Amino acid sequence: MNAPIALTAARPVTDSVVEVRNLDKIYAGTVQALKDITVDFPRGQLTSLLGPSGCGKTTLLKIIAGLLPASAGEVRVNGKVVSGPGPERAFVFQDFALMPWASVIKNVTFGLEMRGMAKAEREEIARRSIARVGLAGFENRYPHELSGGMRQRVGLARALCVDADVVMMDEPFSAVDEQNRRKFQEELLTLVAQEKKTFIFVTHSIEEAVYVSDRIVLLSPRPGRIAEIIEPDINRDGDTEAIRRHPVYLDTVDAIWYSLKTYLD
Amino acid sequence: MIVFGRRIPMVASLLLWAILWEIIGQLQVTILLPPLSSVVMRLFEIVPTASFMSALGVTAYAFIVGNVIAIAVGVPLGILMGRSVIADRLFLPWVNLFLSAPLTALVPVIMVIFGLGQTTIILTVVLFAIWIIVLDARAGVRSISPSLVEMAHSFGANRLQAFTRIYLWAALPEILAGIRLGVIRAVKGVIIGQLLVSIVGFGALFKLYGSRFLMEHFWTALLVLFALAFILAESLAWLERRVDFYAASRG
Amino acid sequence: MAEHPNQLEVEPAGFALARERSAGGPSRKGALLDRRPGAATRFFTHPVTLRIVSAAALCLAWQWAGTVPISPAFPTFTETMAALWAMLADGSLFAAFAITLQPLLIGLVVSAILGVAVGVAMGLDERAEWFASPIFIVAQAAPLAALIPLIVFAYGIGLTSKTLVVCIMAMPVIVLNSFAAVRHTPVSLTEMGRSFLAPRRKVISRIILPAASPVIFAGLRLGCASGFIGAILAELLITPTGVGDIITYSRSIADYPSMYAAILSIIVFSVVFIEAIEQAEVILFRPEKRASP
């Protein structure tokens, strides 16, 4: 095979929403999951955390979300140090984390309700958000009546309607079949373009990361460190279908594969 | 629980309860609860006696025979129900009914038919143990992967071979779980049976101790019974975990 | 059902019902049963047909065994039904049930409230678990019926003793199921609650308790079954009252049809009672089960 083409180097970030500084995470006093992570997440863009299993990408995401404490270092969101979950961040879970006893609309309004919003108002917002993810008409259904793809749309609607600056997604499409995943990826691009939000996206799929990301943070495993930061130079304004045939897309996928291969057993 | 960074094992709290018991006993709050220390002293005194050992022996005999019958009947019946739709529909409603029915109400029936003796107690054990064994064996067979059965047939296994080489083994984790739960129910069955018959084993001992108000004796018998039941349940659970890799690898 | 986070096979007892439930689903060994039956075969293997056949077969077997008779103490099915009818007609059965149900209902309500509270506390707090769980684990495995003579010494032969018997029989399984249910709340659901800014109190009331409720209810049903065992045992062992009195008295005068009828009635009643709890659970707490697909 040919030698890998050079990756497009990351530009310095000027306006970052999330700043991670010298972050360490040690589990149970012995297992080092993350080591000295320093990275910025630029405003209004989608940044992926990509790496093989065991590289700590989900751990990093949960620390940013305030769900896990860091062992050392700090995370700042909009300049403020993170000490727990906050209203400026919303989370989309890998296994959807829907409450099976609650209807779609009750699941979607959960975040708004916890913020003390009145019922009529929060349902109004939730309805718009549900329509936004293409589930209009399913408001009173229950999670078990929906397909996996639809369930993740509910999870997404819940994260969108709290109107957070940062939306964090933990392998959101991994429990969804291949066809639906592709559709999701295309819709995600439209969403990123329309919403003025910052997205942080965890995935183990190289193709998915290159397809959706403005910026890819490549993590190496045991302990998780930053291997590389890549900004694929792909114009995403036009036809979303064309991206997968874009030469830069194909080259970047190849280059990342070469880079990651060295970490596999 | 973790105190000052140290993990304190779960059983340590039993020690705490034992101390509490001793204190209440020493304070003579109630005549019903003698101090633990005197109960333990009594333990060494009466456990070796002939009457206690014979009560234990009689109980163990009824318990073992009852369990053997329950397993010998229950497992094949469960496998049959798992395999045959007709057998399943004929028996399942009754198995479910008896699983949650107040079986103590049926003990008098056994008593009037079989008299006040070992047979009644053995049948009580069977009555308590068998239903969950049937149900779990059935669930085990139903969860066998179809490809495993197809494999057996495609390699030319006949019915008997398929049964002894595939069904029994593939359903083993559930069968064992059922047997463990059945045995735990059987412990309760054998004591309930003896209490109601009241002239056999511990039933007779309790009656004797009760009528003479021998509280230390009473607690000794309880302590021995509870300890044996607990050890039995835990060792069965340990055994079950050892075959658990089946269930895991079977997916 | 597959996605429901709480269809866990948890404690020894919770296990039984969860398993029974999952086994009730569609058979996975379709390949074995894939024969194409004719209309006649379909009629004979239809669930309703087989259920009727099964019930009829049992009644016939009972009738036959009573006619032989396999034992002088074994009445026929028809004799038993006649006795049941007589007891229903003169109201004696209702009077007996009214007495039997007193300790049973008081005991079950006390066990349910106390048991769920203790179990949930153990699930939420590690210190509570450390302190209480060994006691209940031993109690779950031990033949607690052996405590009955002691309870009689302490509280006499009245309602208190019988209620206590129901409690000690019903409580361990309720506590252990509630504990396991709370402890096994899916981590992603509690994380979801925290990440959407629910305070601890709300995480418990809105996420942990609803998520745990199916297994808690399974524990309550098992607790009720044990409570019935305890109530009958108390009436047979302590003093004959209520249904236990009918059983004991008719046995002593060799009126076997009445004895069998009383036993049959209490078994049927307990099964219906536990079924009613399940229905109540669905109606009150499980909107997703009522929803039509």
Automatic annotation (TrEMBL), chain A:
Pfam family, one: ABC_tran
Gene3D superfamilies per the UniProt record, alphabetical: P-loop containing nucleotide triphosphate hydrolases
GO molecular function: ATP binding; ATP hydrolysis activity
Membrane spanning stretches: none
Residue intervals of the ABC transporter domain: 18-246
Chain segments annotated as coiled-coil in the UniProt record: none
Keywords: ATP-binding, Nucleotide-binding, Transport
Similarity-based family: Belongs to the ABC transporter superfamily.
Protein name: ABC transporter ATP-binding protein
Organism from which the protein derives: Jiella endophytica
TrEMBL record, chain B:
Cellular component terms (Gene Ontology): plasma membrane
Protein's UniProt name: ABC transporter permease subunit
Alphabetical GO biological process terms: transmembrane transport
Organism superkingdom: Bacteria
ABC transmembrane type-1 domain ranges (all copies): 56-237
Topology with respect to the bilayer: Multi-pass membrane protein
Keywords from the UniProt entry: Cell membrane, Membrane, Transmembrane, Transmembrane helix, Transport
Keyword Transmembrane among UniProt keywords: yes
Protein's cellular compartments: Cell membrane
Family, as annotated: Belongs to the binding-protein-dependent transport system permease family.
Organismal lineage: Bacteria, Pseudomonadati, Pseudomonadota, Alphaproteobacteria, Hyphomicrobiales
Organism: Jiella endophytica
Transmembrane segments: 12-33, 53-79, 91-114, 120-141, 189-206, 218-239
Pfam families linked to this entry: BPD_transp_1
